[in-house]
Design goal:
The structure is a homodimer. Chain A has eleven helices and 18 strands. With about 450 residues, the first copy, chain A, is α/β, with parallel strands linked by helices. Chain A folds into two domains: about 325 residues, Carbon-nitrogen hydrolase (Nitrilase/N-carbamoyl-D-aminoacid amidohydrolase); about 25 residues, no CATH class. In chain A, helix 7 runs parallel beside helix 9. Chain A is globular and about 75 Å long. Chains A and B meet through helix 2, helix 3, strand 6, strand 7 and strand 9 of A and helix 2, helix 3, strand 6, strand 7 and strand 9 of B. Chains A, B: It holds the Pfam family CN_hydrolase.
Chain lengths: ~450, ~450
């Protein structure tokens, strides 16, 4: 597990980030060698892409990049120039900012459908021991400044990370974190973002802990979709709830009841696959079947648990469903006031592990952007031509070859109590003569 | 597109392979610099893993490996020692051989369930201008020698590549390649493998072009599963048929009619997701729902088309379905007698591109093996403890959180002609006042 140093204040990546030399891709620590075990970096590099591009000769990196990150219309997805304004804000605010462009072929019957998407990843700002309201307001202030930078970059659709207003306290199993829950339609975070959305003409996806007063004050893990006029377009509740090891979010909220809505905004059709839903290929697929062109995956996940899965699942979804995916993970190690155990035989501890950031955008043509920092707040900006979605649908034909009717029948059978899996036994296993296998 | 030199004989990787210095991970060409454009290698490296492990300092490679290849019970999936016998056979036969082990936690209520799996990737042996029977027999001879090596390695379950008895002539749209089709139960290739399966006590999965005499002599893309006693356990027909660009395999055969069978063998429950089916997450899932512990994905796919997808789809399937995947791709550039076009505006040509090999094993814990060579025949041997499948099911809980009933209902609705996608419009798009979005 990647841990930050013992001093609780130094365990905030925001502060550690000050030690990172942001002008270089390798971020050496002062007075001691950079280490993957201390600052959440990869031996001093903020991301895999930066490590590889710095350490490999250019001709080899080009090939490695082609295999690992794919090509968008024949070229690697490379950074596009940022305004001085944006770079200055990133330097001043000590966050990683990266800007990319995904293009599509020009068509004869319709114009390009360009949209600028933004992803924000961030650490909590204050220690979890501070008063809750103070903690929330500090995060809101930080995220507001990041949203202002997104506006500078011309972002049309922005998505924040899962449960962005709070520390990810669900690992503690303490109910007091429920206090961070808000009304999706009228909560403080929604009101804040409505103002920003209107001011910056920006669609904002806001994943929060929701309290639904209309239905017994129940708690949900919800993404609120706010239109670029400041209106609440709607909301979606997390469909699949993790019980991973002893980490059981159903201590707090249950499986969502909002289906697989696609939100038709001025800038494109979007959907939100919240966190653990990324492990469920059908969840991704259902958003695609409802017409999504961009699916955001706001997440909160730690290194030891899921890091090797992270570059795979969102990209697989983008490929299989011919849409863009914006994958977002929070960053930093959150230390909680009281110790808790994790059902793994290890001693009680006060943190869940290092949230490894690494947010990125994946495209339907199997290309993807490099990731944001593994150890600092970040803003990823990607200019997309949404025409790429239909072009890839037409090229690969995954929809027309998907045989949904066959799977509809199969799933209907599967959920019956007397379902018999389609298994063909080797007849030798039953001691029968060869050549006459039977099906159960 | 990675092309081999102009001389048609030099375009066989088998022959080019003789120039590769197999004792070193970097395979320099004689008298000229190695190049990704000539021999199908990555600038002289046979695989991405070899490139990275050679070019990066060990402490950085360790971190890169952790992110890219995952960990199996805390460690990278590393090569295990090979017998001298096997190494000698690989050197003599000029093929890449790699051996790995995936372990599981020890359980108290059942013993480890160890099985040794083998994957074979190979180029065609003779030019496609040779008489068909001669071509087929030359491949059969080569593959027999590779199977003998697999037996030396102690392989229990072996899978060959898609349509292994023939060049992948479907890109030409010429019907004469149908001559390679055989009876699944009684064809020459099946008879050959039945003998080898019995001799070596090995389950063999044999993906061939099938001609079904009982049903109007129709052609299918079929995997025959041969038991370790030499019996034919059963067969599976490719479920999803590609129409990618103008590459349309339904010129030859249609969508399979065998469902998603799992074959219960002496060594474990296996299934076969043939080639293009790897782009369909539900196809992977249905094999898992029927109980597969290992799913093979025998393929034939080329660099420009799919290489960035290759490390993603099989691994995503292994993760999402808590089973092992053996992904196999043929290798080499196959030059056909007559030129053909590819519906892409480019001039007529005689080859489909470079089949990039790169076969590998992916595990349910998100770890995976390094890949076989990108430019030579190869045998990958992986010792698996199948207990890992259930351990990962219990850890991540993807099955119990999968909500199949919800998707069964959704798919049933989707296939109706009057299906209305679940779309929530921003009311501003209709010129309506804000705050009252509507659902269609």
């Amino acid at each position: 597990m990647h841990r930050l140093p013992r001093d609780p204040f130094l365990r905030s990546p925001l502060r550690l980030g000050n030690l990172l030399r942001t002008g270089r891709s390798r971020c050496d620590m002062e007075n001691e060698p950079a280490s993957a075990t201390k600052d959440g970096s990869l031996h001093g590099y903020e991301s895999l892409h930066r490590l590889l591009s710095s350490e490999l000769p250019p001709h080899l990196f080009q090939e490695v990049s082609r295999v690992l990150y794919g090509c968008n219309r024949g070229s690697a997805v490379t950074p596009v120039p940022q305004t001085e304004d944006l770079s200055a804000a990133a330097k001043e605010g000590n966050f990683d900012v990266q800007t990319f462009e995904f293009t599509a072929d020009l068509e004869q019957m319709r114009a390009p459908r360009n949209v600028c998407v933004g992803l924000i990843q961030n650490a909590i700002v204050l220690p979890t021991t501070e008063p809750f309201l103070k903690q929330k307001h500090a995060i809101m202030e930080r995220v507001t400044s990041l949203i202002e930078s997104a506006a500078k970059a011309g972002v049309n659709i922005l998505c924040l990370q899962e449960a962005w207003t709070m520390p990810f306290g669900f690992c503690t199993r303490e109910k007091r974190w429920c206090e961070f829950a808000e009304s999706a339609e009228a909560g403080e975070s929604t009101k804040l973002l409505q103002g920003l959305a209107q001011r910056y003409n920006m669609v904002i996806v806001s994943p929060i802990l929701e309290r639904d007063e209309s239905h017994g004050s129940t708690i949900w893990n919800t993404a609120v979709v706010i239109g670029n006029h400041g209106n609440v377009i709607g909301k979606h509740r997390k469909n699949h709830i993790p019980r991973v090891g002893d980490f059981n979010e159903s201590t707090y909220y249950m499986e969502g009841n909002t289906g697989h809505p696609v939100f038709e905004t001025e800038f494109g059709k979007i959907a939100v696959n919240i966190c653990y839903g990324r492990h469920h290929p059908m969840n991704w697929q259902a958003f695609g079947m409802n017409g999504a062109e961009i699916v955001f995956n706001p997440s909160a996940t730690v290194g030891d648990l899921s890091e090797p899965m992270w570059p795979i699942e969102a990209r697989n979804a983008a490929i299989a469903n011919s849409y863009f995916v914006g994958a977002i993970n929070r960053v930093g190690t959150e230390v909680f006031p009281n110790e808790f155990t994790s059902g793994d035989g290890k001693p009680a501890h006060k943190d869940f592990g290092h949230f490894y950031g690494s947010s990125f955008v994946a495209a339907p043509d199997a290309s993807c952007s490099p990731s944001l920092s593994r150890c600092r707040d970040g803003l990823l900006v990607a200019k997309l031509d949404l025409n790429l979605c239909q072009q890839l649908k037409d090229k690969w034909g995954f929809r027309m070859t998907s045989r949904i009717d066959m799977y509809a029948d199969f799933f209907r059978e599967y959920v019956q109590h007397d379902f018999k899996p389609q298994v063909i036994h080797d007849s030798y296993l039953d001691g029968l003569p060869a050549m006459n296998s039977r099906t159960t």
